[in-house]
Write the structure tokens for this entry.
Amino acid sequence: MKPLYLTTTLPYVNAEPHIGFAYEIVLADAVARHARLMGRDVFFNTGTDEHGQKIAEKATEKGEPVQAYVDHFAGKFRELKGILGLSDDLHFIRTTDEKHVHAAQEFWKRCAAKGDIYKKTYKGLYCVGDEMFLKDSDLVNGRCPNHPNVDPVEIEEENYFFALSKYQAKLEEYLSQESVVVPAWRREEALIFVRKGLEDFSISRETKRMSWGIPVPGDDTQVMYVWFDALVNYISTLGWPDGADFAKFWNEGETLQLAGKDQVRFQSIMWQAMLMSADVKATDTVLYHGFITSGGQKMSKSLGNVIAPADLVARYGTEATRYLLLRHVHPFEDTDVTFERFDELYNAHLANGVGNLVSRIMKLATTHLEVAPEIPENTIPDTFKDAMNRHRVDEAAEMVWQRIGALDERIQLEQPFKVVKTDPEKGKEMIRGLATELYTIARMLYPFMPTTNVLIKELVTANKMPDAPLFLRKE
């Protein structure tokens, strides 16, 4: 079985972590945990994107040194590991790390050696929010569609460019493979964009205008464009070009990147062409998730509908937050969430669902069984594995709760609490069956709720009641 390399995008450190990135990293964590459960070696990567004009401007606004500013926000994103119960072996790369700086400069040199980097004077409209030049076809009402409240700035300067147009045929060939983009319609979106014709893009900025970046090799008047620099993190974290992890997980393994739906151009076109230029294997699959909205509107501070990861955890706890995101946010489509809706789901499926079921079954087991039942191996159904392998974590979670509901119904229909009084051996066998099925449910919970997984399995194997309800109702 091939090793799995799995990475999120690197969030830009100009704001606190938001629920959209929380979903992305929890989704990635669920995929990583399932892969480990199936016996695969996994390298799971995340980190922070810390260069660029927006960062420098934000630090100046706050009157802080830029390094201190990015250190603060990098710390905030590191805290997500504990807040969201992420894997212990999660790797965290910062684009200000020395090893990343060296890798980005080496990557530049290799693209330059291919003849894919050249210098020219360019004049155009520039979106500071996306840190990129805009074509006329990109504009909506004269503005960047991702930043409709900000006028783009006209800039003329001499920059280095990457010869993206050179890779049109290779990108069409790459994007013709069904597996390279999930879901399928995002691949079609990328193909349509490529077939319209590609333009070379700027990959540097003049140091005199924007000095906060990685210096261009051999030209101290320019720093790397933040996207060209940041994308290299996906391999710098593995020790590219010579690291053993790079050989094992990128060259010999399966590579999976997660990103938001607005990243298609960057991740499946620009980055793949850059890899082709540097003679590095293209990404096997990029999975694009939708956006999270609240009350039917995009989240914004001005509307007061922003939901931060820490807010969710403060209200529901880590395990319940993971459950709510992974089961009730669609992995590919946009999803609307509110605290009111999450409260309903929490009570119905956690407090009254799995929490109540555990208490009922373990009450029967501790009352009537002298020892815990023997647990068979390999009880996770293939349909569950298939859903996880298709990255439909919502479907996989739904299967778990279907089994929870079925087990609850089984207790109601078979009434082992009555049978054990009239036919003790038959009743005990029924209770052993309930406890064994509960253990399988716990196994299936591992990608979503790893602490709950451990707790339930310990209760079953120790044949004991939980010390307190697993999930208290929200009133």
Observations:
- DSSP finds 19 helices and 16 strands in the chain.
- The chain has two domains: 4-289, 317-462.
- The first strand starts at residue 4 and ends at 7.
